[in-house]
Amino acid sequence: MDLWFTELYENASGYTIKIKETLFSGKSRYQKLDILQTEQLGKMMVLDGLIMLTEANEFSYHEMIAHVPMTAHPNPERVLIIGGGDGGTAREVLKHDCVKECVMVEIDELVIEKSKEFFPQIASAFDSPKLNLLVQDGFKYIEDNKNAFDVVIIDSTDPIGPAEPLFSEHFYKNVNACLKSDGLMSAQSESPYLYNKIIRQMYTDMGKAFPVVKMYTGYVPFYPTGMWSFAFASKKYYPYSKPRIDMIDKIDNLQYFNKEIYSTCFALPNFVRKILDENDK
User: Fold this and answer.
1) Residue 131 vs residues 95, 128, 204, 238, 253: alpha-carbon distances, Å
2) Residue 34 marked as a ligand binder
3) Are 56 and 42 in contact (CB under 8 A)?
4) Per-residue pLDDT for 145 more than 60?
5) Quick one: pLDDT band at residue 165, thresholds 50, 70, 90?
6) Residue 74 labelled as part of a binding site
7) What is the rounded CA–CA span in Å between residue 50 and residue 191?
8) Exposed, middle or buried by CB within 10 Å (0-12, 13-18, 19+), for 175?
9) Neighbour count for residue 203 (Cβ, 10 Å)
10) Which of 92, 164, 220, 281 could make an S-S bridge to 228, C-beta 3.0–4.6 Å?
11) What whole-number distance in Å separates Cα of residue 237 and Cα of residue 247?
12) Is 115 annotated to bind ligand?
């Protein structure tokens, strides 16, 4: 019997993948977690019916959310990751030798446990002495830590359920306060083809908290439409102020990110510019 998993999108479309078997299905106090073995894409993580990653293509998301802000900052020694329970973003952050400490705050311990079990190559950073892994509410952690980090990465799910508080003006102002005087942040910000309203509100709120706000894009085949956007917000640096471009060639095992990607990822199609109504802040 053929087994298929389908994620339905909001515009009467979806994404269907043939699967071999269900490896794990369970529910934490926050969300439902499924680990599926697919025919062609390796193992796949699904949260509340939404695809989070596939083994075959996870690098495209994790490299873009991590290496763009890490390249933009001239000396990112302390890095905070909110979410990212699979460990992929931490893995990429810790490829930068300049990092002295990476604090990762994930609210759902089940995601961490099952990532270690089923995705050890993604969760490899959990064994790093530079990683301080905390199982708690990232919103509260941000509130309690001021002027502490060079880079903050918001590796959250969509703005529903446990991630909903991470998409608000109040939260972005707390992120600003959590950063050092020249700190910057990145966050996933949905597909411009499908989620115009969410994107417009997110960037409006972020613009009330940071003097520099930009969007960059990448191609993530397991997310809706394949075109995915990321927010870049900074207290001081623009993407091209003091980027560590020459460092990129020294990063181990990059499958997506490179110098040319960094130089072009902030160029936006006209329809995306219209969504943002950019004013070159």
Assistant:
1) 12, 5, 32, 27, 20
2) no
3) yes
4) yes
5) low
6) no
7) 14
8) buried
9) 22
10) 220
11) 18
12) no
pTM: 0.94
Per-residue pLDDT band at 264 (split at 50, 70, 90): very high
155 annotated ligand binder: yes
Place of tokens 């949905």: 190
**Measured between alpha carbons, how far is 57 from 115 in angstroms, rounded to an integer?**
16
Tell me the two tokens of residue 133: 């892994």
Q: Which residues contact 166 (CB under 8 A, 6 or more apart)?
A: 82, 83, 138, 139, 154, 156, 159, 187
Residues with a known catalytic role = 155
How would residue 280 be classed by pLDDT, with cut points 50, 70 and 90? very low
